[in-house]
Amino acid sequence: MSLYADEIIRFSSVLKMSYNLIAGREELKRMKTREKKHLISVALPFSDLVYGFPNLVPVFPIRMHVFKISKYLSLMGSSASLFGWDNISKFLGYVKNMGIKEINKIIDQIIDDVIQTLNEKYNEMFDIGVERGISSDFCFALKTLVGMYVTKSKNVSANINYSIRCSAWNKYLESLKAINSNVKQIWLDIPPRNIGNALELLTDNLSDVINQLENLSGNSYNQSTMREHFRISNQIREDYKAILYEIGTSDFYPCNPATFSEILALLSVSFQDYNSNAKRYAENIHQMVNEMKERIRKGIGMDVSKMPIIMITPMFGGWEPQTHEIIYELGGRAIYADWDVLRALDDIPISNNSDPIKAYAKFLFNITENGVGCDNNVLTSSYIRVAEKLNADGIIFNQLFGCHSISNCYSMLKEKTRKNLDIPAIALTFNRIGENIEQVKTRLGAFMEMLN
Amino acid sequence: MIEPDFSSEFFEFLKGKKENGVKVVAFIAHDNIPEEMLDASGFFPLRMMFAGNDELMDASHDYLPPSTCAFTQSCIGLFSTKYPQYRFLELIDYFIVSNHCVSDICGSEIISKYFNVLRMNFYLPYTKNKNSLKYFKLELMDFKNQLEKIKNEKIKDDNLIESIRKYNNLKKKLLELNELRILGSKKVRIMQKALLYGPSFYNELSQFIENNKDNQEINTSKKNVILTGCSVFINDNLIDIIEEGGGNIVFFDTWIGSHYYSQVFEEKFLNSIQNPYEILIERFKRNILSDHSVPNFLENKISQIIELNNNFKKKTNGKSLGVINHIIKFCDHFSMLSTYFKENLQKYGIQVLNLERDYSRANKGQLSTRIEAFLEMMA
Known about the structure:
The complex is a heterodimer. By secondary structure, chain A is of the alpha/beta class. Chain A is built from 18 helices and ten strands.
């Protein structure tokens, strides 16, 4: 039985978010064809500017795909639109409690399918990316992104390209017009360092992006709309951090730790486009926090006080999804907090009177200077900072094959971990989902023995 | 490994510099570092431009994973192994951390951090527009401050202009070298030496050109190719392999090659600009063929190669050039675009070999086979 399934049906917010993640295609199709909105391809947590224009829809391209969704999940989605997700969730929980074997099996299967179908799709994108010519030497994330772009760029009007320190990422962005020259490429050059008046230059570059989005949208840029979105996205960040740090570090979890890790993994993927509807996403994640707190208050869940906290990072570029389940079986709990490592969970410093574009420039510079960093010294310090905030008992460093940017600094990180945290750390290598599970199990077994 | 004579000659050269109070500043050899500023403030700019081998690559794995650019691995390996032939590296005082690519950042940072070399910073914007030029200027000013702080004296504009002229003259001479019809291996070795020694190599370079003007070889049996992509560094035998396979490099479209000497300024332009930093900014702006830049590098590169091929065809009654796109294993810039690069040039009837390799000895046979097959295929 899936650990995830057994617990998650009781969280309507999680059900909703999962559904929106893999069943978003129809909604996106409707927005594009009926509502005449423009889909804008985004990746990494850089979708915010697009939300400044109501007829532009940011989308992480994999969501445009058809996923193998069980007919039950489809049914559930349709029923939810009539009765609401809360009621569906309650009903499923009730059925589950009744212990009716066949129905239980179906429910387990539904949720299992969500994870499995997502992973299968990622691997499919990986293969398509390689077939299209991206060298197998690049990381999982770029291969899958090429796959997504090859298959789905025909649906998008533009792609948002933020230059960051990863040269493979920047060149991947350059390669997109060779894949599909009809898609508008909107570039934002983020200066590598905040020196002199670089903030002004970045603000000006952002204004240029806004102009291009205005042209695409046909609507004028409106500060209030942008400000309102930033408030929503800050609320999302607050709730995300509450899940990570309030719930994640507590002694009692509202579900079993593997389920909790699954939720964090789901948040990591969905944070990139807020499921194309930031307001709905904000409501969802807020509800998720409330549901979790409510369950803890009622004593529903699991005492995890004796289970060591393992921070697994970086995983947003691809990781073995079974890792947290293996860790759970070995007596630990895994936390995924990449977006905070990269400082993408810091607030956009907006106020009633401030210029939203300037605020966003500051937000981006904070990511560049203190999160991703201009070098590995800054980046590794950021890993340490988050491990400290999580009270992590151990760090598992996911060394993504072909990543030359953020997952290549294990030696430096290990040294800092020893010096500053005095907790064990190991590195796992990752290339493709499902490729290396036995080795992962063996390595994790040895690692967890050190902690137990 | 580099030749002992070469090594000791360069060691003595650097030692001489140091004895005269000149500090040595090393950097990964990319094409956007303002070496003239170093020269003008009394530093010697030392390009890391030495090819690797298995031992050097292996020696870097304590710091970065093996899936790191083989050149960066080797640069770290040079500091880690401390081979006697490279003892001149011990004379380095500073290392510039720059972001030509992310391996440049990581490799330079590691060399500085773990091998006790003081760090300087010089970062680049990725695009080429008015704001990125303004940002480039900020970096130049920041770099100026770093240099002045170390020397405790201001860089005089006149000194900088003089340095710009010195390097400009060297580049002009290299342009002349490029025009010589001699074997590519001979040409590249002189280019490498010129880039390593800088303007003090000017006379030797002039002499070489003079000596070879009347000795130009026209070997009609050789297949003429452009080498693009990653540079061929000192002590790399790739060019020899190409020549043994029946090819000849007529144009080096790499850092050690046209990326460097094509940055030459006309006298009129130099005379018209009062502020020397504006010259450096202009050079950055013109450097559209640098693999660092986005988003038009690929387009620019393809246009350039088509033009080179057309010119060559005019000179040779319609013969086409082949293109060897040299990709050092795990190089982000050239590897990511290689498929599209090849597809595009093939549309124009230009044959391209995407030649990916690292510095391991075991690769030599495979490299020879691929190169020979490619040259045979060329019409």
